[in-house]
């Protein structure tokens, strides 16, 4: 064990370990588990220090004590769930707390490993997963969100897509719904720029990293802000895209015409609501993909991060907008 002068204050310890995983300006590839956003850092710090105050109140002065950390985190989270239920607070807010404390745990363990310290690493995944499960129970759990609107996603997106009369728009909607693409990514940029999908975006049939099933890869898609992203869709939809590109060289259409087709189909199927439009398909995708990730063994944080990447957001807290109703 290396010589380590531990900060006396529990709040100083929190800042010390968080500082060790800061990676502002770095990419997800370069720093997959670090904190790359100032906004995320601020949110996580607030939640971590709130837990720090709770620890101090109960006489704990060392976040590196793995056994005490786990015991008090469990009590803190069960207490949080009870409080959130009594005050009718949202699941979204509790998920932020869970994510922040998961990042605190990672920061502590990373600090221990980086400095070759002799402390036992912390493992509270099971606790956080159980709290998330209880909070999501249909009858006794928390409400999805404190937002005033009920749900931006379409109640029956498959029926809506089948109702779209224009074959180009139907394919574009399928890609958004199945792959989480923006309109920019399916060749219907709202800013008027030409950004069609071509043969260069056809990545072939590959295994889904979450489910293991065969999917079609749409690669190197240019979306909002010039981001280059990859997306996965069903094999059937991918083959339709391959055939479309083979016949017409590229997939694209004016945004206004695509939006009009979607809105018309929404009205015909009784799903129209101002503000839903084409972006609602991303909400459908986000909710479905998050649930799929959880069902295949991912933790709450892992599922949010995976869904966020496929939505081309990269910071998982942005995904709450899509995964909450």
Output the keywords.
3-stranded antiparallel sheet, mainly alpha, 3 strands, 325 residues, elongated, single chain, DNA polymerase, domain 1, 12 helices, 2 domains, hpI Integrase, Chain A
CATH superfamily label of the largest domain: Intergrase catalytic core
The geometry reads as elongated
Structural class: mainly alpha
Radius of gyration, rounded?
22 Å
- Tell me the β content: 5-15%
Quaternary structure classification? single chain
CATH topology of the largest domain: hpI Integrase, Chain A
Q: Strand count, sense and closure of the main sheet? A: 3 strands, antiparallel
Helix/strand order: HHHHHHHEEEHHHHH
Query: What is the strand arrangement across the widest sheet?
Result: 1-2-3
- Mean pLDDT, all residues: 88
Helix content, binned percent? 40-55%
What's the CATH architecture of the largest domain? Orthogonal Bundle
CATH class of the largest domain, please?
Mainly Alpha
Q: Count every beta strand, where a strand is a DSSP E run of 2 or more residues.
A: 3
Low-confidence parts lasting 5 or more residues at pLDDT below 50? 146-150
Please count the helical segments.
12
Number of domains: 2
Distance between the termini: 48 Å
Description of the molecule:
There is one protein chain. The chain is mainly alpha-helical and 325 residues long. It folds into two domains: 10-135, DNA polymerase, domain 1, CATH 1.10.150; 157-323, Intergrase catalytic core (hpI Integrase, Chain A, Orthogonal Bundle), CATH 1.10.443.10. Helix content is 51%, strand content 6%. It has a three-stranded antiparallel beta sheet with strand order 1-2-3. Helix 2 (38-57) packs across helix 4 and helix 7 (167-179) packs across helix 9 (255-268). The longest helix is centred in the N-terminal third of the chain and has 24 residues, at 91-114. The protein is elongated, with a radius of gyration of 22 Å. The model is unreliable at 146-150 (pLDDT under 50).
């Amino acid at each position: 064990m290396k010589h380590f002068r531990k900060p006396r204050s529990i709040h100083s310890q929190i800042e010390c370990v968080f500082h060790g995983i800061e990676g502002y300006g770095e990419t997800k590839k370069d720093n997959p588990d670090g904190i790359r956003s100032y906004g995320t850092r601020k949110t996580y710090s607030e939640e971590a220090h709130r837990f720090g105050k709770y620890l101090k109140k109960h006489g704990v002065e060392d976040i590196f004590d793995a056994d005490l950390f786990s015991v008090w985190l469990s009590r803190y989270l069960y207490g949080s769930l009870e409080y959130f239920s009594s005050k009718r607070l949202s699941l979204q807010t509790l998920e932020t707390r869970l994510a922040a404390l998961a990042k605190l745990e990672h920061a502590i363990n990373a600090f221990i490993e980086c400095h070759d310290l002799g402390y036992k690493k912390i493992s509270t995944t099971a606790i956080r997963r159980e709290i998330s499960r209880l909070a999501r129970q249909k009858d006794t759990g928390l409400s999805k969100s404190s937002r005033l609107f009920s749900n931006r996603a379409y109640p029956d997106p498959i029926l809506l897509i089948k109702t779209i009369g224009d074959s180009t728009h139907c394919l574009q909607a399928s890609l958004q719904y199945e792959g989480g693409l923006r309109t920019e990514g399916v060749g219907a940029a709202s800013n008027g720029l030409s950004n069609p999908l071509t043969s260069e975006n056809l990545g072939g049939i590959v295994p889904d990293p979450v489910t293991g099933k065969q999917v079609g890869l749409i690669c190197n898609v240019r979306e909002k802000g010039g981001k280059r992203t990859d997306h996965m869709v069903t094999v059937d939809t991918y083959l339709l895209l391959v055939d479309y590109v083979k016949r017409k060289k590229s997939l694209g259409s004016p945004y206004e015409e695509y939006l009009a087709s979607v809105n018309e189909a929404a009205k015909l199927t009784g799903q129209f609501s101002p503000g839903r439009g084409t972006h609602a398909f991303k909400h459908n995708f986000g909710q479905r993909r998050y649930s799929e990730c959880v069902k295949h063994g991912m933790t709450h944080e892992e599922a949010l991060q995976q869904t966020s990447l496929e939505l081309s957001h990269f910071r998982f807290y942005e995904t709450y907008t899509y995964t909450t109703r």
